[in-house]
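Study this:
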Amino acid sequence: MRLEHFPETIRSIIMPSHQGELYYQCLGCNAEYSIDQLLYTCPSCNQVLLIFDKKFDELSHRDGKLWQTIFDYRKMLTIPALKGIYLYHEFIGPMIPIESIVYLGEGHTPVIEANSLLKKQIGMTFYFKNDGQNPSASFKDRGMASAFSYLQYLIHKGLASDILAVCASTGDTSASAALYAAYLKEFVKSAVLLPYKKVTPQQLSQPLGSGAHVFEIPGVFDDCMKVVEYLSVHYPVALLNSKNAWRILGQESYAYEIAQDFEYDMTDIAVIVPIGNAGNITAILSGFLKFFKTGIIRTLPKIIGVQSTHANPVYRYYQESDPSKRQFKPVVVKPSVAQAAMIGNPVSMPRVVYLVDEYNRYADSERVFFVEATEQHIMDYQLLANQNGHIACTQGGESLAGLVMALEKHYVNKNDIAILDSTAHALKFSNFQDMYFENRFSEEFNICPNPKMINTPKLIQPQDLKNFPQPGAPLTGEEFNQFVKRTAEEIAKRLQVTRTHSSEPQSTNNG
């Protein structure tokens, strides 16, 4: 819809006008730094940063209902820069000009309601938000659209050139970073570090296909992250992990979209999200807080963070009920099917602590909870979801397992409506499905396949036939007719269906 076709009352305010005054703030010593430089940690105390807007309070000058109207009308615009996460420009990157925004189709992924059978089995209404339908097939594109728009902003201002973008990854981050870097190939080169043999073949193929420099190193993600951090401190590179506060800004769009999809009514809403490196839950907390502070939503939804028992440092931290006694301790991870969550020392943990406290304070009650799920439950619930019409990845299975645990612990109830984060496309993790169906998980996964869920192809080759069609050697005549008839009969027998009509078609007399 073109701007001139909008009602006059909205036409003059539908385009972003809030400039913002963004700055980095350290969560350790509260030092502030200009955004005209690439920063990932505080130069003074090495703590992580968040990005704030000195003019954020100006957003409250507009009524929350008017903001809702602006976003709903803006969604109809045909301007590419505002079709993705920057639909919420004022809340994500208000100082980034429209011409600097990188848009590859990210954001506005669908929320799909579970069917009646699955809702009955779980015990409540819930939806999957399919972030695997982003361009690189994961939620990481939200943060990358923000980070690369910021890089292009620096380039356009003459503050940066010939950028080498680097990241550590369990798979999805590298795919996304490489894709967006390839789009800005004239100015940006991409290098990704992966833990050797710890990334699915599908995920490995993505950065390779996008032309990135791919390096595999021994160990796990946490080891890769340390190398990338060293590179970012000692070499002129742009770090693209969620340690980069611009990534967090982009991923806040997940919260904004949920608010908009549910008509800004967050009453009885619970959002279930895998934790991983803790960037996503950080962004979701921050996003809902921003909408709440500006009156766009009137209620803060419940947030349930989920971790695997094989990588659960955040869950362990919050098991201590007395905040003054909580101590964060990294864990040594074990192999997990939820590979993106296989992180024992999440870099955004300080952000989580800061934002959980603020979230609960604004909600005036405890609204953020943490649960853990076994590897068995992660796989079983992923398969259960997908056998009921979803395309959930293993992290989506982790979310569903987390919802079940949250129900058991009464963090949510049957009258709530849950939105589950399926962070990537199921096809990225199809090898784990294959391992489940073929019962070839190693003992360290602690997964024993449920025979009722195993599904494998069956060869149909009737034994009473001598010849079968082959590529380049088809059957003909009566021999082919017999092949068709006997194969169909064998399939019908396997499916336990019986013949109910004559084999010969009957003619109808219309005279």
